[in-house]
Amino acid sequence: MKELFQHTALTDGVTVRVAVNFLPEQSRIEAGKWFWVYHIRIENETPHALQLMTRRWRITDGNGEVNVVEGDGVVGEQPVIEPGHSYDYVSGCPLPTPQGSMEGYYTFHRVDGQGDEIRAATPFFPLAAPATAG
């Protein structure tokens, strides 16, 4: 099955694509826990090899509560992405509400040590659970 990327952002030759899906089997709605999985594809269209160094997510739940998540790399890795190549990973996000959103950025350094850091935006994407019978 081919993944359908619903959201895209382009910054300085780095494209970030996101596909997001609600996972009812991982959610505990009766306990106030909703869970989404998101697939990220990062495409390097610069002429330089780039290493993903850090990530920053701003996660907002349906009550307007904001949680900022920052750290090194993604899913325990700091991948090097060669020119014309991409890197994919999948992660998840729990929320205490049936809707919310995510947005943020990645920082990259050129592997050759030249040039400035690139701060590539991740596209804003909504987290929305389907309506449930009540």
From TrEMBL:
Q: What is this protein called?
A: Co2+/Mg2+ efflux protein ApaG
Recorded hits in PROSITE patterns, A to Z, give: APAG (PS51087)
- The superkingdom of the source organism is Bacteria
Entries under Pfam families matching the protein: DUF525
PANTHER family, per the entry:
OS05G0170800 PROTEIN (PTHR47191:SF2)
Indicate the segments forming the ApaG domain, all copies: 8-134
